[in-house]
Amino acid sequence: IRRQLCLLLNAENIFHSMADILLREEDLKFASTMVHTLNTILLTSSELFQLRNQLKDLKTPESRNLFCCLYRSWCHNPVTTVSLCFLTQNYKHAYDLIQKFGDLEVTVDFLTEVDKLVQLIECPIFTYLRLQLLDVKNNPYLIKALYGLLMLLPQSSAFQLLSHRLQCVPNPELMQTA
């Protein structure tokens, strides 16, 4: 239903409205679940390609306003907050958030969400993020954030997947041009 609404109406307005509503939600478990669902739709729906592109480039007041609105609601769920930071290329903040994960209660549900985020990183939506791993010098916090996720995961298939991805990050000395 949400995907169809985004096709028929302005996707930015729909996500903005839903985020505003979730800010006032008193049932925090429900808010966390809804934020996770909205985040999954945002990251995977072809209908939201334009909205994702708008969020990747936070140079306009509208895109910054949307990011701030989503961020306040996305904070109901720590892993979705990190994925929003990845989407918007706020890698230092993603790294800072992941550092705070050590203070959280790590549950099976939490680890499952981290596992799903790792799977999403391997999807076409995050191709730009994976390509930015080539620019080690300008993206140290992206690499640190991904290593932080790796350290959170038990040795599972997601751990292996992310570990293999990080092994592909080039040595910065080898990437220097003459």
From TrEMBL:
Annotated GO CC locations: endosome membrane; PAS complex
Keyword Nuclease applies: no
Protein known as: Vacuolar protein 14 C-terminal Fig4-binding domain-containing protein
GO biological process entries: phosphatidylinositol biosynthetic process
Record's keyword terms, sorted: Membrane, Repeat
Cell location: Endomembrane system
Record domain Vacuolar protein 14 C-terminal Fig4-binding: where: 2-169
Coiled-coil spans in chain: none
Domain of life of the source: Eukaryota
